[in-house]
Specification:
The protein is of the alpha+beta class. 39% of the residues lie in helices and 15% in strands. The chain contains 26 helices and 26 strands. Strands 4, 7, 9, 12, 14 and 15 form a six-stranded antiparallel β-sheet that branches. The protein has a six-stranded antiparallel β-sheet with strand order 6-5-8-13-10-11, with no helix packed on it. It has a two-stranded antiparallel sheet with strand order 1-2. A hairpin with a 5-residue loop joins strand 24 and strand 25. Helix 12 runs antiparallel to helix 13. 36% of the residues are buried. The N terminus is likely disordered.
Length: 809
């Protein structure tokens, strides 16, 4: 029975010595029987060859009588027990590989015995059942949120600037276990969604058409019962048609009212346009038959009550109406009427039976036309891909817009239920009088605050007996895009997922990775992986003492940062060897930086690729930015530099310091004698509590003491000649940065495993586990077989078992 659909290669154990089988490749399970057979061989090898070796070499410190570090290897009685203690063997291998076991005071392991033990441990770890692990559901971090908004809208808005800082786990800020959701962040999401849509969308010229009979009718403040099948509304007394309209923008609106009036008395029919219950424009209605009268009003944005009111009712039978003012009297004309005289309304002859004339207003409909639409930006055209017209209903246009936007935002086709929920928001807004663009905007806001957008969700699926299953193509597409771009998949990646190519064809993943690395968006890999792995983000916050380092300026800080960034970007763009991170004969300098390093002059302020003439410099370890972040404000720190290399380069971090450890003294010996940092550390290491960790960190840091706290070369410290020699726990001796880098080069297997594990951690969003070691080993092997090219590192991670598979809860 095939256990996994992603086969890996099987390397049987060729004889190394005494019939023992050494493991020279990754163990592969073609089927369950094969896996069981491999485990039996490794178990038998322990009983035959390893148990006796352990007894002779290790029991003195880790046996029945003494257990240094709480490790008792004598309790591992046979091969079966040995295979159940893989974490223990993992730790043993690290100590033996680094020369920390056996300790210096004990007899060293013979080279053949050391190789035998390490080969067995490697084979034993490969017998563990495959486990891709499980990534905790996690929200988008701040960088990812910004990039996703950029790719959705085409606008680089960086809305997450107001979000709380992301927590860091396993060295990175995209780890699911630490990306919590504080209440403040939910509030920020709502604000950000409004701000994004406000910037991305332009409110097209809003228009409203209202049939008067569809609105409320008031007569003297009392609501009139609706008339059935009415096509217009007529008034002979004070009254108005009234409703609410949502004005999407503030500005000047043209109101076109289709109305007619029956004239009576000395005034024309007058209607008034009211907004917020205030008269904003009186309008004369001179035509009896319905015709359009227009007026321009100023309205502020928002939902507002609007009314068309009949302002001057008149009934000839009820009251007289003042005549218009008399014209001026010309010379010689008859005298005007006596002041105070009242003009009477004309009286019809008694023989007439006409009914009294009544002034009346009839309103059929009215339209409001808003301010002209400005030029539509690309962000608007990208989102608003449909609009209602004679052939397309409003809801259908909204559906097209929302489905396209949500599919991109959710990184997969939306479900029917998701689509209906978004359309329900549109329906409510449309029913409440929002113009089309505003109703769609509200539904789009629903997308931007949806868990499907804010979280990277990989829904559990049925798996094998161990609960392991392969991710579907859309989840793989999402993992790829967030790995390389810290953003959502583009159309090409979604198309590949739709076609089912990502999960079934490894060559398709290779093609996609090659394409994505060439895209400018892959700069995110530098900004979000390299800056965190190398600790370069700290450079923005350190502040060297200005009295000791007056040369450290904001400009120099930027140059030191940019040098590292330019170096790793060049390595990625040119697909160079990742070993150059440890040692390279070039860097990126400008005039200021070359002078700072004491190197030959480089013209201009722009960084340019320069071949190094000083062999003491090479690789990121000797770059000023890294040296500065591993120093203290007033001096260098061999401890910090050694710890940085152990953690970031060799993947072998020391344990945290014990509590209540005193800080390093200030170096005064009295009588005017000042000690070097090295001399002070040697006194500090005299404490047995401190010695075990410092003997691993300090020698590495001593090899870099020629570089001061901001990366300049020096030959003295405190007036004394520098001693940059060191001895590692493995017994390797060196002097100065050149010989130290040579040792790193010899440890390239350890470095490659560290780099692969760091990048795999970033790609997965979780810390690597013991079960990930076969994948890490395979990545390292592929690098070695392909000139250590950067693209190979990325591609192998994208094709790795933990990247493509997941385990159910």
């Amino acid at each position: 029975m095939t256990r996994f659909s992603q086969p890996t290669r099987l390397a049987r154990f060729p004889a190394l010595c005494g019939g023992f089988f050494a493991f020279w490749g990754l163990l592969t399970f073609d089927n369950a029987a094969c896996a069981a057979d491999d485990a039996r061989q490794v178990s038998a090898a322990y009983d035959k060859d390893i148990k006796g070796l352990i007894r002779v070499a290790c029991y003195k410190c880790h046996g029945p009588d003494k257990q240094k570090g709480d490790l008792n290897l004598s309790t591992i009685g046979d091969g079966a027990a040995a295979l159940a203690a893989l974490k223990t063997w993992h730790d043993v291998a690290e100590k033996v590989q680094n020369g920390e076991m056996p300790p210096k005071k004990s007899d060293p392991l013979a080279a053949a015995d050391k190789a035998k033990l390490l080969a067995w441990i490697k084979a034993a770890k490969a017998t563990a059942p495959a486990d891709p692990g499980r990534v905790t559901i996690r929200r988008l971090n701040r960088a990812e949120y910004n990039n996703v908004i950029r790719d959705l809208t085409g606008l680089d808005l960086k809305p997450s600037a107001e979000f709380p800082e992301d927590d860091v786990g396993d060295g990175f800020d995209n780890i699911g276990d630490v990306l919590t959701i504080p209440p403040l962040l939910m509030e920020k999401y709502l604000i950000a969604a409004d701000q994004v849509l406000e910037k991305a969308l332009i409110t097209e010229q809003p228009t409203f058409h209202v049939e008067a009979a569809q609105w409320s009718v008031l007569d003297d403040g009392k609501e009139r019962a609706p008339a059935t099948d009415a096509k217009n509304v007529s008034f002979t007394a004070l009254g108005e048609v009234r409703g609410f309209l949502s004005f999407p923008v503030s500005g000047r609106y043209t109101v076109k009212i289709k109305a007619g009036g029956d004239q009576a008395g000395n005034e024309p029919v007058m209607l008034g346009v009211k907004v917020d219950d205030k008269l904003v424009a009186p309008v004369k209605v001179l035509q009896k038959s319905a015709s359009v009268v227009s007026v321009v009003i100023d309205v502020k944005r928002g939902m507002r009550p609007v009314a068309i009111a009949f302002m001057n009712p008149f009934n000839e039978a009820d009251a007289a109406e003042p005549l218009p003012p008399a014209a001026p009297v010309k010379p010689g004309a008859a005298k005007p009427a006596t002041p105070g005289a009242t003009a009477k309304a004309p009286v019809a002859p008694a023989k007439s039976a006409k009914a009294p004339r009544v002034r009346a207003l009839t309103v059929e409909s009215f339209d409001l036309i808003g301010p002209p639409t400005p030029a539509l930006p690309e962000s608007h055209r990208r989102i608003m891909i449909a609009r209602p017209d004679a052939k397309t209903a409003k809801r259908d246009a909204a559906k097209s817009i929302l489905e396209a936007f949500a599919t991109r935002a959710y990184r997969r086709p939306i479900t029917k239920e998701q689509g209906e929920r978004l359309l329900a928001v549109f329906d409510v807004a449309d029913k409440n009088g929002e113009v089309f663009g505003e109703a769609v905007r509200l539904a789009l806001k629903g997308v931007l605050v949806s868990p499907a957008f804010l979280f990277r969700i990989e829904v559990d699926r049925p798996g094998d007996a161990a609960g392991i299953y392969k991710l579907d193509d859309y989840d793989i597409a999402s993992r790829l895009s967030f790995f390389l771009w810290s953003s959502l998949p583009d159309e090409a990646l979604l198309d590949a997922a739709k076609a089912g190519k990502l999960g079934s064809d490894p060559s398709e993943i290779e093609r996609q990775v090659a394409r994505m690395l060439k895209d400018p968006k892959s700069r995110a890999l530098i900004d979000n992986f390299f800056t965190q792995w190398l600790g370069l983000r700290k450079l923005s916050f350190i502040q060297p003492d200005s009295k000791i380092f007056p040369e450290f300026s904001p400009e120099l800080r930027k140059d030191l940062y940019d040098e590292v960034i330019a170096f790793v970007e060049n390595l990625m763009r040119e697909d160079r060897s990742v070993l150059e991170i440890l040692d390279a004969d070039y860097s990126f300098l400008n005039a200021r930086l070359a002078k700072h390093y004491g190197l030959p002059a480089v013209p201009g302020t722009a960084l340019r690729k320069v071949k190094l003439t000083d062999a003491n410099r090479g690789g990121v370890v000797t770059m000023g930015g890294i040296l500065a972040i591993t120093s203290l404000p007033t001096r260098t720190s061999p401890v910090k530099r050694g710890k940085w290399i152990l953690e970031q380069i060799l993947g072998d971090p020391p344990p945290p310091p014990p509590p209540m450890v005193e800080a390093l003294d200030k170096g005064s010996e009295g009588a005017g004698v000042t000690l070097t940092v090295r001399q002070r550390l040697e006194r500090h290491r005299a404490d047995p509590v401190c010695a075990s960790c410092h003997e691993r960190m300090d020698p590495i840091g001593f090899g870099l003491e020629n570089f001061d706290g901001i990366g300049r070369w020096r030959d003295q410290d405190a007036g004394n000649a520098l001693d940059t020699s060191g001895v590692l726990p493995s017994g390797q001796q060196f002097k100065g940065p050149i010989e130290l880098r040579r040792i790193f080069a010899e440890r390239k297997e350890q470095y490659l495993a560290c780099l692969s594990g760091k990048l795999l951690t970033f790609a997965l969003g979780r810390g690597v586990e013991l079960s990930d070691e076969p994948a890490i080993q395979k990545i390292s092997d592929a690098l070695e077989a392909n000139q250590y090219r950067f693209s190979v590192l990325v591609t192998e991670i994208a094709k790795s078992y933990p990247f493509l598979y997941r385990k159910r809860l």
